[in-house]
Structure formats: C-alpha cells, structure tokens
Design goal:
The complex is a heterodimer of chains A (274) and B (84). Chain A is α/β, with parallel strands linked by helices. Chain A has helices at 9-16, 18-21, 24-27, 30-38, 60-66, 82-91, 130-140, 158-182, 189-199, 218-228, 237-252; strands spanning 50-54, 74-78, 98-101, 115-121, 141-152, 204-216, 260-272. Chain A has a 7-stranded mixed sheet with strand order 3-2-1-4-5-7-6, with helices on both faces. In chain A, helix 8 packs antiparallel against helix 11 (237-252). With 84 residues, chain B is mainly alpha-helical. Chain B is 50% helix and 5% strand. Chain B has a two-stranded antiparallel ribbon with strand order 1-2. The longest helix of chain B is centred in the middle third of the chain and has 15 residues, at 40-54. Chain B starts with a helix and ends with a strand. The model of chain B has no long low-confidence stretch (mean pLDDT 94). The chains are: A alpha/beta (274), B mainly alpha (84). The interface between A and B is medium-sized, with 20 and 20 residues.
Chain lengths: 274, 84
Amino acid sequence: MTDTPGIDPVIEAYSRCAGEYGSAENQESCWGRSSRSLWPRLRPRPEHRLVADVGCGPGATLVDLASRVAPGTRLIGVEPAAGLREQALAATAALPAVEIRDGRFESLPFADGEVGYLYSLMAFHWVADPEAGAREVARVLAPGGEADLHFIGRWNGRELIKATSPIFLRHMGPARLLSAARLRRQLTVEAARQLFQGALPDRAVEVDERYETHHDTLEGHWAWWVRIEGQMLSIPADRRKECEREVRDALAKLATPEGIPYTLHILHVRVGPG
Amino acid sequence: VNDLIAIATEWVRANRMPDADPSLEVTPTTDLLSSGLLDSLAFVDLVALLEERAGRTIDLAELDPAVFSNLAGLCGAFAEGSPR
C-alpha cells in the first residue's frame, strides 16, 4: 500500500485486486450474498431515463438491472478503480443501454439534475469526503429523482475487529493502524441521517440501519477479508506471514457450530422526490 | 499527565464500544484494544482529542504498541510530545 500523495489507497487497492473480485469465493462470501440480496430492492421507475450505479465495481448489478428497466433507459456505472472499470466494461459489452464512466462520489460525472435514479451498493463508506459525496448526490439528482444508497455503518464486523485489532496493532504499530482506520468513513445511523438530510434539505430523506449476521468458514472469510481489508492495512512485508498466521488463529477461535460469525451493519439512505 | 488521563478516561467511558463487556472498568492501565473497549476508529478520535487538549503531537510511528493501547502510556506520550 502506498502513501503517495494524490493516490487514493482504497481505489488503488481495489484496482489491484480487481481480477479476484468476481471470484466464486468472493461472490459467495457474506459481502457477495448481501449485495445480491439488495438487487430486488433497487427501484428504478419507467420515468427514470438515466439510472446511475455509483461504485459499480465489476458491473454485476448493472447486468441484472439492464434486464428489468424500461426500454430506452440509460444505465451508467461509475467506478474509480481502473481495474474494476475494465471488468464492468467487459461484463456489459453486449448491453447497449449500459455505459461505464470514471468517477467517484465526490466528483460524479453527470450534469446538474441529470440523474433520475441513483443507487450504490456497499461503496459510500469508502468516500474520502462524505460531505462532498452527499452534495454531489444532491447536485446530480433530477428534481423528481430518487436514490438508494446501501453501505456499511460504524458497527460493522465487530466480531472480527475485536479479535484481530490487537494483532494488527502489534505487527503494524499505531501509526499504520490509525492510517488504515482513517481510510474508512463508517457512519452511525444518526451521522448518516444528519449528513444526507443536510445535503438534501428539500427532499424526503430516510435513513435506516440493519444488522445481518453471516456465518462462514475460515477460508470463506479469508477469501474476502484479507483481499479487501487486509490490503488496506499496510503490514510490513517481513511481518505479514506471522501476522496472517495469528489472524487466522484468532478467527478460528470464533467458530461456532454454524461457522465463524460476521455481522454486517448496513445503512440505507433512501432519497425520495420530496 | 493526570489531567489528560482524567479527560481520556471520561471520553472512553462515554465512547466505549456498545458490545464491550459492561463489567470492564476503564483504568489507566486497561488495554483498550484487546479488552474491546475501543476499536481503531475510536482511537483515531481519542488521539485527536488528546492532541487538542494537550496542545501537543506525538510521533505514532515511534510509539511502542503496548504504550499506545492504554491511557497511562498514551497520555504520558502526549505529555512529553512536541508542541503543536
């Protein structure tokens, strides 16, 4: 992980691991299952002529949605990680209604009031500047536009965090541990409500939260967790192997007859026309 | 340093993780991370608070993890830190 000024380490990490993103292990992990469970909850209407997926990743949601939007609807995926954009382009190549653009929440590639329906799955917690991200959502939404944002909240993954934070502190030291923590903007439901209601004062904004506990094998968790969060942690190369061994031991100790639990804390921001 | 420890203790009591063992007490030598009283996101806020209240900064890269994770060590480091 680099700390080069001007390079977003989150985007860099996601771009680097793009090849593994679509793996069966990731798709069947708690993240993959939870994301797919949200697809039916996305609600584009026939009057939404432009639908935006912000943080579209490899484009799987766009492929699903393309089959159920009204004819003539344009679907635009926005993804800052070049490696994932390439995957999204490949996945949607046969879908003429879909376009993939470079961009991020803080600088959405849309004109003012252009987007009829904006959605985002498991991405907003990576924004570098949540206030700017919320302002951009407000800017691009059409007067009658709607939005659904689902992202992880402050109390996500407590089981694994409690078990592994002391290990990471020992191997990384305080400076790297806090640098990694600062990459995530995990909001409480109250903070998310204040953020979006403040940015969209003339809209109907509802924010709710829910918890989903998933159980998986050690290898199942390892498949997604090390690939995504582990890469954010900048573990020195000479300590990585020992750190990973200790982390695996710590996760194994969490096992129950159902598997190793991981509780997702998911926030849902729903923006109505107002 | 005792003033800083008092400020930090009050903050930790108010911001302890909701799933932390309710019987755990916050003392200057409690390991806040391994006890589950705080996580790394909360430590970001605690360090910012101590910087502001101490008027000093510390070099986290040079700090021993065992010193960092309890209030006696962390507040002691801030008491001896560089003026902001």
